[in-house]
Amino acid sequence: MVVAEILTGIALVQKSVEFIKSNISTVNDIKGIAKQIDGFFLGEEQMNKEQGKGMSIAEQFGSVESSANDFINRKLLEEKREELKFIINMRFGPTTWDQIIAERAAKINQAKEQVRLQKVEARQKQKEIVDTLQTMAIIFCVIAVFIIGLVVTFKAFAYEYKSKQLTRQQKINQGLIKEPKLVLCRLKKQKVYKGKVACIYQGANRTFELSFQDVRIGCVKNFRCKLNPNGKEPSIEQVMESLRSIAK
Question: What pLDDT, on a 0 to 100 scale, did the predictor assign at position 2?
Answer without folding.
Answer: 44
